[in-house]
Model the fold of this input.
Amino acid sequence: MMPAAAFDIATSRPDAAPEFSPRQQVVLQHALTLLVDGGEKALTTAGLARTASCSKESLYKWFGDRDGLLAAVVAYQASQVQFPSETGATADPETFKAHVSAFVEALLGVLFSETSLALNRLSIGQSNTNSNRLGHLLLVRGKHMISARARNMLETGRRHGLLKFDDAEDAYQVLYGLAIRDVHIRLLLGEAASPAEKDLKAQAEMAVGRFYQLFGA
Amino acid sequence: MMPAAAFDIATSRPDAAPEFSPRQQVVLQHALTLLVDGGEKALTTAGLARTASCSKESLYKWFGDRDGLLAAVVAYQASQVQFPSETGATADPETFKAHVSAFVEALLGVLFSETSLALNRLSIGQSNTNSNRLGHLLLVRGKHMISARARNMLETGRRHGLLKFDDAEDAYQVLYGLAIRDVHIRLLLGEAASPAEKDLKAQAEMAVGRFYQLFGA
DNA sequence: AAGAGTCCGAACCGTACGGTACGGTTCTCT
DNA sequence: AGAGAACCGTACCGTACGGTTCGGACTCTT
Done:
């Protein structure tokens, strides 16, 4: 037999269609749950087979090996993340600014969710092994997708004369830094978020306000 | 016997004096090296004993168990990190701003070093086990120490009328965000830093410039 | 000089987990 | 209805690693 799935996941285009069968998605969801409360050590093949009521043989048939399973979990979760659409967001300056705030709030919502934290912990823990499949997956299917959308949003803001910057990537990174600060790493390390940090809307608006001080036209 | 060392490390005050014997420090340095290139899995008790030419018995005697060893590595490395002193840094506005830049540059230098990255990866990977000893250690002995010094620095800047803000912690977090952006998490995930991101001095000055736009008096 | 203490090196044990094999059951297709 | 695939459950194997034990060498103290 060949562990085809493991290879496909790493190399297929992000918009590849079917990806996983419904049954497999159920199993991956179980894997994700195990991972969220318990960390990587809690996700054993035997444990997942028991929890998801499937056989280990099926796991190995579908995902090749344990690494393939982990990669599949990452890919599956990445495919679940959705961002609000941005149609007609530049109608007027206020709407655009509100739209940027909404984007940042969604970003915070994703990054601070237990699921995202668990997958980031997993990928980071594995980042110096396996030629770093997981880290790349998370970056390509997660961060880079988001950053592309963000750059796009900021560019339209600039075209409409609402923002002023030279490099969209640079501007986005500043926006990211203003919004996330060191909260992400602290959450990854297991510290709880403060009440103020849990008010994502307020945090987003504060960050966008400061961003406009730096890059507003 | 009792694994005294493991307990002491977690509960002793950060300024406790001797901490580790020279021989133990050599062993911990070997452990750190193993950890930096190879990740957590590369740090096995047998492997460390071989590399450091000591017996496993000594490891268990000194550090209690493997977790105690990991905690000792974190504590040891934290004790190695030194920041430049800040005597007479508020002589005039230029000097102070340069001092802030130097602080940020030092911060970047620490956070982006392979050693720090390896320990962060380790702590993050363990953050949902062991009641999270490592994460707390890293936060208390690392981040919180640094943030205290930073707040102190910013406060003196404010007292001298050079900066303007309500909450020093808030201001520091903004400075942190402007300097680090998403580079830290990307490095943790195994992505290489871009050439521009490796120019720590330029990155620090850019961040401080923006910080002054927001908080300069 | 002898006893105690420290440490190295190696052998050993138990276990947990990744991976495989197999018998039995259900579902699908013709 | 019958062949065949997919799949579940379980038992099994090999290995890697955490932790313990022990013999022997070296040092320090009295």
About this structure: The interface with chain A takes residues 37-42, 118, 120-121, 123-129, 132, 135-136, 138-139, 143, 173-174, 176-182, 184-186, 188-191, 210, 213-214 of chain B (CB under 8 Å). Chain B has twelve helices and no strands. The longest helix of chain B spans residues 133-159. Residues 83 and 149 of chain B are 9 Å apart (CA to CA).
